[in-house]
Amino acid sequence: xxxxxxxxxxxxxxxxxxxxxxxxxxxxxxxxxxxxxxxxxxxxxxxxxxxxxxxxxxxxxxxxxxxxxxxxxxxxxxxxxxxxxxxxxxxxxxxxxxxxxxxxxxxxxxxxxxxxxxxxxxxxxxxxxxxxxxxxxxxxxxxxxxxxxxxxxxxxxxxxxxxxxxxxxxxxxxxxxxxxxxxxxxxxxxxxxxxxxxxxxxxxxxxxxxxxxxxxxxxxxxxxxxxxxxxxxxxxxxxxxxxxxxxxxxxxxxxxxxxxxxxxxxxxxxxxxxxxxxxxxxxxxxxxxxxxxxxxxxxxxxxxxxxxxxxxxxxx
Length: 316
What we know:
There is one protein chain. By secondary structure, this protein is mostly beta strands. It has 3 domains: 32-42 and 120-204, no CATH class; 55-112, Roll (Pdz3 Domain), CATH 2.30.42; 218-312, Thrombin, subunit H. The chain has helices spanning 2-19, 77-83, 107-112, 263-269, 307-312, and strands at residues 29-32, 36-48, 52-53, 59-60, 65-69, 72-73, 88-95, 99-106, 117-130, 136-139, 157-169, 177-183, 191-192, 195-197, 200-204, 217-218, 228-237, 240-252, 255-260, 273-274, 280-283, 286-295, 298-306. The strands form 3 sheets. The protein has a 15-stranded mixed β-sheet that branches. Strands 17-18-19-23-22-21 form a 6-stranded antiparallel barrel. The protein starts with a helix and ends with a helix. Keywords: Signal. Residues 1-25 form the signal peptide.
């Protein structure tokens, strides 16, 4: 009996030691961001961004891909320009895997179509978090879908840059608003893009972590999130990140719905805007999640993903 008691006491002492402050690892902390960013993905192909009527009566259709010039493979607009020669030029065009054709243009006609071609995807979004230890970041809270290709694009390189909000087009029921931003890609990029995943873009931060940046805070576990007051961090003027009051009105699995209650934000934006995806949500000093969508008919309401769920899709 005494032996059993000694074993039990030793087991309890072991548990207490494991649970003591010195033995418990510090909870993961991330910096909530909220800055507007310009996003640029470099693609391994050239595609047509708008329908173009050619002088011979043929059309280049939106989504067509230019794969070759005079039988030589081209992967970028720069390579395309270098392939132009005097006289006629034959372009190989693909639309899907089974639709292939060729068109012949003069050098002048080929130069005239350049403004309608793209070899990159770009857009505006919001930074969600920065890990001060690994210098990894996450943004958007959802995947980038190219509006012309209607799919997540393959990409060879990606960059994010700080964006400055110049003007706001307000949201109204049935009409999503948006941020009008200026992005200076001549500035040093903030980071690369290593993944365009279902829950956002992720990459490595390349800029300095400034002393005046917001401090790292703990991630709120999904079962700790409560209905009621919370705050949203985002930029609606210049590059300044501000805190706005919201109310969490529904929690379901790894997702939540919220309503904007901040009068300043409602007055300025009408609600959620395109470009706010990724804006951090904080409750009781802990990092809850990121904005992902707005309700088009009720722009003062939005949806978000919990941060713990977003981090599951982060690349290792």
